[in-house]
Amino acid sequence: MISTAIRVARVGSAAELAAAALMMLGFPCLMLAALIPSVYAFVVAAAVTYLADHFLHRKGSYLINRLSKVRAGLSIRFLIRQLLLILLLARMSLGDNLVFYAAVACFIAFYGLQAPHGALVTLIRNRRRMPVATRNVDLKSRVRIPDAPPRRLLDRSAEKMLHLDLFAVAGLLVSATLDDAFVGFIGVGVTLVLGCLYVAVLLPYVRGRRTPPKADVVLAALDDWLTAYRPETVLYFSGSKDSAYQVNMWLETMEQLDTRPLIILRERVILNSLAPTTVPVICVPGGVHLMNMDLTTVRVALYAANVGKNIHLLRVPTMKHVFIGHGDSDKLASVNPYSKVYDEVWTAGRAGRDRYAIADVGVRDEDIVEVGRPQLAPITTWRGVPEGRIPTVLYAPTWEGWDGNPGNTSIVLAGENIVKKLVKADPPVRVLYKPHPFTGTVSSRAGAAHRRITALVEKAAAERAADSRFSADTAAQERARGELTRIEARLAELAGVTGDNVDEAEATRDGIVGVRRHEEIARLRAEWNDAYWRSFPEYEHKVISGAEPRLYDCFNVSDAMVSDISSVVSDFIASGKPYAVTDSGELGAEEFRRQNTAVRAATILSNSAAELGGLLDAVRDPSADPLAGDRKELKQYLLGPDEPKSIDQFNTAVADLARKADIRNVGQESRVGAANVDPAEAAELTTALPAQRNASAGDTDGVNAV
Question: Rounded to two decimals, what is the model's pTM?
Fold first, then answer.
């Protein structure tokens, strides 16, 4: 019942639900206490509403946002409490007392202070938001960016300002109890003085040298940096906060390019969710600002997603445009007709090329280049289940998608059957459940199924922990948890302030990642991953959500995987481990294999998951695995050859396309130059000697100029 109420109220925990209930009940109790009148009951009810409101704000509760939508926002709740206090004073026959008039005047004045306070906070935040935000771009030496105001002034500023009424409320309640106006006057004075001081402290940050430079100054400094840096290859990305993984997967590849890389983002939320990198990053929310940026040295633009904002860079003819995607799979998204707009489409292996040919969406075969998958380098090859350890099976379903196709995900129709069979397998296996981060965002059925599967895994984990057949080295786990705490503290120290509350201007000024710092972060993340898997028993079922541990880390600790048609399957094939794919759309095994290349070496599961035994047999006895050879062949077909290395193939493709861009640009300059030549000069050029003609042409079009 409580869990149902939590889902309906969309709160994160029972504590949040309790706080919301107390706050809702607190205000009627305040009115009742004021009408009786009872000072002590009023004090208790007021304390409950203050504390519950504060708790919900600290938790970032969804209910707080909803209350503001129905005109019961934070300011209104404080005003109601203040009005009820005035009602209490009136009911206590203090209406003719000076303290009553002081209370009325105080709350009117205090409410009036909210306007300049809110305006100043908004103005400061807007002025601190520059036209571009950057990382690893040296703007500090080119433009003056002042320090941000102390975080305590702007962080949850409205809540802090409103809570200054506590002094007046407390003083007036004491006055009502003791029948002594002096304490009430003191409380009223303290509230008004502190409110005025808060406004006064904010004033210096909206003028003079404490404000960041104007947009044109920042953009000019950025162009100056671009001129000095001369980027050659750009990774362009636009999307929601939840899609940040799509650009994060390409960061290491960008760091390994032979050309000078640059990352261009279009949304600030993506920048705040970007993983650490040494590559220069520019976030340009405005389309006009992007189109005015000096990108004349860029020859190759890489696109990780098909989104409408791509058009702002696609319009630049001096660079070649490539769709690299964010995974290689048999999903319809992997053969999007939008891909026609790019000069080339890069796929991992031959399968991607064939996929476009079969789909016939207008992408020409000569525009497809096979470059492998550089991101798959961290995935280790399977050597069998280590002796003495029970097998681990990863269940990594994809999300429900936008179109409602039941074949998109197994989580709704097959997920519970899969997990039930795995947790009850004999001999036993361990289950790792890692759902797609978008699960439940479109379909409530998918969200409900995810919660049921999570409950199944957690229940099975608790039962196994109580099973005498399984024992754990608790001391080793405790040491691992200690390591995790130490590593996380150091990572937080290295990362500094991140997320939505970071000051954008300061982060732009100081956001240059040193190579040593970056290497330390990479080393600590590897240590964190190792400690994480040691922090609980090797037999324990686990639900894994969030960005860490990463999907590839889950691959490396697993011996088999169950998934759906998605890039997850194609990537897992790099490990050589057995895998199963669910035919949730009930096409039948043969038709399912015919339509989906990645399942040709998979165990095909129906929605009942009755075929799971075949997968588990292959894990327990690799020598009797009938699909081992098929997986090896399919790996090369999907992901390309092991040699040359994928990153080398990728760099070669970048160099070849940059060469094509240069040839195109030289040709255009020559044509423009010829079109601008005076007819008499053109006639002279045609009769000149070859050497003279070359020299004159060089002077005219500037192609050979350095």
Answer: 0.77
